[in-house]
Amino acid sequence: MIKILFVCHGNICRSPMAEYLMKYKLEKLGLTNKFEVSSAATSREEIGNPIHYGTANILNKFNIDYSKKKARQITGDDLNYYDFIICMDHNNLYNLERMFGKNNKCRLLNVKDIADPWYTLDFNKTFKEIDSGLDNLITSLIKEN
Q: In whole angstroms, what is the distance from residue 82 CA to residue 75 CA?
C-alpha cells in the first residue's frame, strides 16, 4: 500500500482538496485498496476547523463526502508513516524541512506553486492545478509500482 499525505499551510483549502480529489480519482480507477491518502497542515492556525467553504463547494460538485475532515497539523509520526508527503508550495516544503530536516519523502505536487485560494479566492484555478498534479502523480506512481 502506498501512503500519501498532502500538506498545505492550514489544511482547510488545498491539501484537503487534494486528499479528497485523489480518493475520488483512485475510486474511479479501482485503486483505493492500493493507496492510503490523508492531509495535514504545517501550521496550527486551523486545527480542528472544517474545510473552507470554497473547497467544500468544489468537492460538492463531485458529490465527495468530506464531512469528517477536521484540520490537523503534521507530526513526526506522519513523517515516519507516510511514503510520500506532497506539498502544495515551496513555503510548505520549506516549513517541513525546518520541522523535520531535509528528506526524500517531502516533495511538491507541481513544479510551480499551487495558488492558495485563501488569498486568491480562486478555488477553480486551485482545483485545476491540483487536478492536473494528481493525474501526473497517479500516473507516475502506477508506473513505479
A: 11
Q: Specify if 125 maps to a domain.
A: yes
Q: Residue written as cell 502544495? A: 88
Q: Where residue 130 sits, what CATH number does that domain have? A: 3.40.50.2300
User: 80-131, pLDDT tens digit by residue?
Assistant: 999 999 999 999 999 999 999 998 899 999 989 999 999 999 999 999 999 9
Q: How far apart are CA 55 and CA 139, in angstroms?
A: 24
Instruction: Specify the number of domains making up the chain.
Output: 1
Which among 8, 13, 87, 106 is annotated as catalytic?
A: 8
Catalytic-residue membership of 13: no
**144 in a domain, yes or no?**
no
Please indicate whether residue 116 is annotated as part of the active site. Answer: yes
